[in-house]
Amino acid sequence: MLLGPSLLLSAVLFTIGVVGVLLRRNAIVLFMCVELMLNAVNLTFVAFSQVLGLGGQVMVFFVMTVAAAEAAVGLAIILAIFRHTRSVDLKNINLLQG
Amino acid sequence: MTLSLLAIQAAEAISAPEGATRWVWLTVAFPLLGFLVNGALALRRPQAKTIVSIVGAGVLVAAFAVAALIYAELRGHPPEAPVIVQLWRWIPSGSLDIRFAFQVDQLSVVMLLVVTGVGSLIHLFSIGYMHADAGYARYFAYLNLFVVFMLVLVLGASLPVLFVGWEGVGLCSYLLIGFWFGDKVNADAGKKAFLVNRIGDFGVLIAMFLLWYTLRSLDFVTITAKAPTDLVAGGGLVTAITLFLFLGCAGKSAQIPLYTWLPDAMAGPTPVSALIHAATMVTAGVYLVARTGILFAMAPFSSAVVAGVGALTALFAASIGLRQYDIKKVLAYSTISQLGYMFLAVGTGAYVAGIFHLVTHAFFKALLFLGAGSVIHAMHQAYHATHSHADAQDMRNMGGLRRYLPWTFWLMLIATFAIAGVPGLSGFFSKDEILAAAFGRGETHRIWLVYWAMGMLAAFMTAFYMMRLMAMTFFGENRTGAAEQEYLHDAPPVMTGPLVVLGILTIAGGLINLPAFAGGHHALETWLEPVVASAQAAMPLTMPHGTTEYLLIGAAVVTSLLGLFLGWRVTLARPIPTAALAPAETGFARVLFRKYYIDEIYDALIVRPLVGISRLVLWKGVDQGLIDGLGANGSASLARGLGWIGSRLQSGQLGFYVVVFLVGAVWLLRAVVR
Fold first, then answer.
1. Which pTM value belongs to this model?
2. Which domains does chain A have, with CATH numbers?
3. Interface of A with B (CB under 8 A)
4. Which pLDDT band, with edges at 50, 70 and 90, does B186 fall under?
């Protein structure tokens, strides 16, 4: 019954992910930070499922599925960008500027 | 459909059409066919003048033949009630069910005969008058179309059908006044006629709305049947309806204050002036008052207004006619003045006298205008031959023409005597009847004695200015110019022929309603009795009899002869200078010559303020300021501003988006958790 420490760990992981998304410019790192946030949430689900039933664990499978799909699409986009600009630095990618 | 028709016929006491009456629509269809053919020729083969002449005048003669057949039939079997010829359901809308129907009764047949009869003669005259004109086919197309609408006007069984004709004749009047639209003056004159008439048409529309509101019907038969029971005699409603109707009549028939368009309408070809602006269209107002006589009879105030405006117009226009030099302008003011007489008659309740004067006036005024047309034709040809630019319509350039145009001279002299009221001629009987009726009405209210006095004074002026016209045109020394004199001659037979027929009608026209003292039996009055009976019952007329009648006739004859004599003496007292050498008018003559400055006053009081308001408020303020500035450009600026703000938000930097997203997510979370 490590509910408290588990939630603390997932909060720390999620915060690291958010800060990474906010601060890093490398698209790959940014992507990894997003994955970190997803997995922090997964940890929360698993932790709570010990108290509230198996629904949380079922949800984790959904999150993993979506994360896999997202990774596939996201990596493909990053690859395309890299082929186009020879860089994955998001600072140089501002085509949508108004 | 048939059942409902039968029900209507049972309820409103109308007769079913039979015999020739069923074919009354042919009188409209023939000129319409002429319009289509001539219109097509005007667009495709403007030089095919022979076929245009045959079609243009032929359809009118055919229509006149049908009208004569209908008259003969009605004369054989006078219908108890008006015959309604239903053509189609025009506006079926809820309880408003307007049928396009023609009403054939004693009144509309009289108008039918006048319009097609005088119309035929003027069409024939036009063949000669317009023959050299480049717009020959177009002219006949317009003229045929005018007759179509005029017949719809006089035959319409309900106010909306009448209104179609009413507007249509206005359109044709506009087209024909501006027939020579190459000159801006002519186009302006057409526009003026159209706009002034629009004021009157507004009155007719309001009157129609009020009638529908009160009587739930616009058919003349129903109006005549229902008005005595459903409307309060002398009440505000019937007074309002009749005053609005009269506003329309004042516009169409050129009465004060809307008469100003008619003198300018002389810009059109002279046969047009004869047909539209003298014999037929301008009498539509008189016809409308007679047609809705029951309403006017129930509104004594409106009747007094109609008679008063008529008497005032008769006097006012006649006084202007005293000092005009353009031969057509004199006749135009004469027409306004004579229309005033007709309104004096119908306002007095003498509907038959009004229609009688309408008919005789159609004869002698058409004759005068066509005679003037012959004179202008001759003058124009003479000046054309010598390449002179002198005014072919100015009487100061004429003089002594009786030697060169004997036919025209004698025929116009007959018409002059008729309009002046020389005993025995048509105008004498009709004018005398109007003045006698006004005098008789004086028993009920003294104002009518004033109207009678105004009518007498106008009669004197009429005789004076007509004799002045004759003296200046046909007597004295010729002032056209020595070189021009050999080109002055009478018009060809196709033009003189109609003049002769009109001359006979002018002499004999009085026979249609010969009074008892002249050995007649008031034939027209007997004929129209079924139509005007209900109005006459609501406003009985007392005609003077015995000594009073003879005294009135004596006074009228003396006035007329005195006017003729003075007109002759004063005009020929001293030599008349030609237009180019004439000195400027002085004193009151100048006021008369400038037509009391009414056009200038209207211009200053109405036209200029209206143009000013339109320019400053409507154009600069509303159109440019509100609609263009705020509406069109304003909404565009607003969209652009909002778009600028939106585009600033799109930095293109992912980090920025994430921050915004995060702030939003936290804010939402806070709202959920709380």
1. 0.80
2. 3-97 (1.10.287.3510)
3. 18, 21-22, 25, 30, 90-91, 93-98
4. very high
